[in-house]
Amino acid sequence: MASVAKNQMEQKMKLPDIKNAGQYTGLFVVDFGDHCGVGFVAEEVAELLDSEQFTDIKVYQVYRANPDGTMELKGVNKETFQLEAGMFFYANDAESARGDYQRLLAWSDQQLPPARCKTQLADTDNAHLVALIYPAEFDEAFSRWLLDGNYRTIGQVEGGTGAVQRYYDAEPEVLERKQLWPATSIERLQGEALLEATNRAIVR
C-alpha cells in the first residue's frame, strides 16, 4: 500500500488546514484539478463519478490522520466505487459455519464495522460458509476490523471482488442474513447540495 502524508502532496494539490483531523479517517479527498475537497463519503464520490462533469477527478481516501493535522492519503481507483468486495470463510461442516457466523456477529456487537455490509450464513452445492460483503473501497478497513477482533476460522478463506461474483454465480442458499451499519452514519449530500459542496475545501 502506498500512502502519502498531506505535506508531501502540497505540490500536487492544495489541501486546507484541517482541525480535528481524526474525524476524517475513512472519508475521501477529491482533487478537482483547480482545487480539492476534503470530507466526502463514498456514496457522494460515486455520484460525482456518475456525472460527466467530474469524469477527470482524482480520489484519495484518508487512511490515517495524525494529531498534528497531517493526513495519510491513499489513491483510490475510480472503478472501485462501482464494485463490491468481500471475504468468504469456508467451513468443514454446517455446525462450524454457524459458529463462525455467530462469532462474526458477536464481534460486530462489540465493535461496529467500518462501513455498511452484508453478512450471510450460506450453503452452496459443496460448501458451508460465512459471507461478508461490503463496498470495495473499504476492503482494507474491513481487513483491519477483522484483525482487531482476532476473527479467525479454520477453513479456506477467499476475498476480493472476483470472489463476490463467484459467490453470486454459485446461487447459494442463504440460511441467515444480517445487514450491519457503521458506528456513525453521516447524512449523505445529493443533487444540488452535493454540487454546491464541490466548491468547498472542507465538505463537512
Write the layout of secondary structure elements.
Layout: E1 4-5, H1 6-9, E2 28-31, E3 36-40, H2 42-49, E4 58-65, E5 71-76, E6 84-91, H3 94-110, E7 117-123, E8 128-135, H4 139-148, E9 157-159, H5 161-169, E10 173-180, H6 191-197
Antiparallel strand pairs: 1-5, 2-3, 2-4, 4-5, 6-8, 6-9, 7-8, 7-10
Explain what this protein looks like in three dimensions.
- The protein has 204 residues and is α+β, with helices and mostly antiparallel strands.
- It is elongated, with a radius of gyration of 19 Å.
- The protein folds into two domains: 4-81, no CATH class; 83-180, Alpha-Beta Plaits, CATH 3.30.70.
- It has helices spanning 6-9, 42-49, 94-110, 139-148, 161-169, 191-197, and strands at 4-5, 28-31, 36-40, 58-65, 71-76, 84-91, 117-123, 128-135, 157-159, 173-180.
- The strands form two sheets. It has a five-stranded antiparallel sheet with strand order 1-5-4-2-3. A five-stranded antiparallel sheet has the order 9-6-8-7-10.
- Residues 1-11 have low confidence and may be disordered.
- Helices cover 27% and strands 29% of the residues.
- β7 and β8 form a beta hairpin.
- The chain has six helices and ten strands, in the order βαββαβββαββαβαβα.
